């Protein structure tokens, strides 16, 4: 089957396709298989991801997605001045650009990622003279921190779209946050799963059911998953954060700004002006 047959894939990833022989399909993928596939996919593709998107992400900017919404303006974690002295965890941090911005605001930032290669890029980019983030290699489903370690947690397209048990991740975030702490995360806007993942006009016609939660999987000739992405509807995501012990304060759907002429996979000015591409959930711990 052809990757173009599927509605949404490679969210915010380096490039469509995981390898020459990858077959794209929709099938069940559990926690262990998803985690294993993500680790090796991001290890293999981190160099390309950082080389393709590093300039847009910036070494120490906090960008919420391909639209370019910047935390410096959006203040979804709170006003920048309020971040000073806070313990903040970034999940699925990649090369830790966001965590580096948080550290520059005076936060004690921890950047966690499953991929060793992504964290090597964090080391490469990190300037030893600038405030940095502590780097931790771990799975979002098993956070290696004591309960109540952080004031805030965030994730820009990190981990959440790739895990089979999103409520498990929310519960882990709840455990490591202090009462009243915010958990803010961005994912591909769920409506995108109904459309082909193409930046041009072919990406504007509904091609699949929005309600089909079957994961998108790229697999090798032996059926081993190379890349897995999980779809949840907007309602599912709201129920996930509530089930994990959070209140939903806001759901931000960034509009495509006039200044942004870049294409990033299926994200483009054409589609961005018509349908949302990113959903950002702003949650508060009970
Ligand atoms: C699309 S990238 C986003 C990286 C970064 N936040 C950015 O904006 O460039 C997704 C990241 O999530 C990480 N990731 C995927 N599954 C994960 C998991 N289960 N636990 C922790 N990190 C994970 C990947 O290794 C990758 O670095």
Task: Offer a concise description of the structure.
The chain is α/β, with parallel strands linked by helices and 286 residues long. The protein has helices at 31-57, 71-74, 97-104, 116-125, 166-176, 234-243, 269-272, and strands at 23-26, 87-91, 108-113, 134-137, 150-156, 177-188, 216-219, 225-229, 246-252, 278-285. Residues 23-41 have a biased composition (Basic and acidic residues).
- Mean pLDDT score, rounded? 93
Instruction: Give the SSE string.
Output: EHHEHEHEEHEEEHEHE
Rg computed from alpha carbons, rounded to a whole number of angstroms: 18 Å
CATH class: Alpha Beta
Helix content: 25-40%
- Give the cofactors and ligands: S-adenosylmethionine
**What sort of overall outline do the alpha carbons produce when their principal axes are compared?**
globular
In total, how many domains does the architecture comprise? 1
The oligomerization state is: single chain
CATH architecture: 3-Layer(aba) Sandwich
What is the third-level CATH name, the topology? Answer: Rossmann fold
Number of strands: 10
The proportion of residues in beta strands is 15-25%
pLDDT under 50 segments (min length 5)? Answer: 1-11, 13-18
Per DSSP, the total helix count is: 7
What does the largest sheet look like?
A: 7 strands, mixed
Q: Give the CATH superfamily.
A: Vaccinia Virus protein VP39
Q: If strands are numbered along the chain, what order do they take across the biggest sheet?
A: 4-3-2-5-6-10-9
Structural class: alpha/beta
What is the first-to-last residue Cα distance? 45 Å
